């Protein structure tokens, strides 16, 4: 159980690097601490959109998504954080959590590299050192499968053969269409080509609804504050006639 504690330790808190004039980040951190991860995610996304060159929002967004068990999606946020990271503590935490993601995905080779880079940015990280050793152990016990060169050549031959057969069939169909068009006195092929279906990937419907609710709640809070200020600033009518 020790390794489970180690490679989830860093998620107990979010990074709190200084962010000037970013009002959404503190609200997101507060929601994260209260375990309201969907609300935290919404505010981190707003903070990220307002500060696209900063690493902190992307990193914390990855943590909020990770807490919702969307491991693969969290990985992209950590990678984005690394692109914008300029400080060693930022790089250390992003590489560390990226290593955690790879461990969850059982991609031990990638995990080894991620933990190695985390240690380069913080050599004193004992948990990172332990996880690095654990990842190497898991990689040794579960080496990546090597492709058989002979099988690869056979697969290429089969693919080439299928492709040639398909080309021949397409050519025959084209000749047939031309003959039919000529017979009917028409020069265009009236057959409609099938349209590609849109991708069904992305954020799930439930998570999307949660995000929209969180954003709407934030907008309502802001509007209430604006209305309160308007009422407070309204001049008081007196009955005295000076």
Topology overview:
Elements: H1 2-6, H2 24-33, H3 37-50, H4 56-67, H5 71-84, H6 88-104, H7 108-121, H8 126-141, H9 149-184, H10 205-232
Helix pairs in contact: 2-3, 3-4, 3-10, 4-5, 5-6, 6-7, 7-8
Give a quick set of tags describing it:
single chain, 242 residues, mainly alpha, disordered N terminus
Short overview:
The protein has 242 residues and is mainly alpha-helical. The protein contains 10 helices and no strands.
What does this structure look like?
- The chain has 242 residues and is mainly α.
- It contains 10 helices and no strands.
- The longest helix has 36 residues, at 149-184.
- The chain is flat, with a radius of gyration of 28 Å.
- Mean pLDDT is 75; it is low at 1-5, 8-13, 184-201 and 233-242.
Distance between the termini: 81 Å
Provide the succession of SSEs. HHHHHHHHHH
Report the β-strand fraction as a percent range.
under 5%
Helical segment count:
10
Arithmetic mean pLDDT? 75
């Amino acid at each position: 159980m020790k390794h489970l504690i180690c490679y989830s330790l860093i998620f107990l808190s979010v990074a709190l690097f200084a962010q000037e004039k970013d009002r959404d980040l503190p609200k997101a951190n507060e929601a994260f601490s209260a375990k309201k991860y969907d609300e935290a995610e919404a505010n981190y996304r707003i903070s990220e959109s307002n500060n696209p060159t900063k690493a902190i929002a992307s990193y914390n967004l990855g943590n909020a998504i990770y807490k919702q068990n969307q491991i693969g999606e969290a990985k992209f946020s950590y990678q984005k954080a690394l692109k914008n990271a300029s400080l060693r503590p930022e790089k250390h935490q992003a590489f560390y959590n990226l290593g955690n993601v790879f461990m969850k995905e059982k991609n031990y080779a990638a995990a080894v590299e991620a933990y190695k880079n985390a240690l380069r940015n913080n050599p004193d990280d004992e948990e990172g050192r332990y996880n690095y050793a654990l990842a190497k152990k898991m990689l040794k016990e579960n080496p990546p499968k090597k492709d058989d060169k002979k099988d690869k050549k056979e697969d290429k031959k089969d693919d080439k053969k299928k492709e040639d057969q398909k080309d021949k069939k397409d050519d025959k169909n084209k000749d047939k269409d031309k003959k039919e068009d000529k017979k009917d006195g028409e020069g265009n092929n009236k057959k409609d080509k099938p349209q590609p279906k849109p991708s069904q990937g992305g954020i799930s419907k439930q998570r999307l609804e949660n995000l929209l609710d969180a954003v709407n709640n934030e907008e309502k809070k802001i509007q209430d504050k604006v209305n309160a200020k308007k009422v407070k600033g309204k001049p008081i009518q007196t009955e005295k006639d000076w």
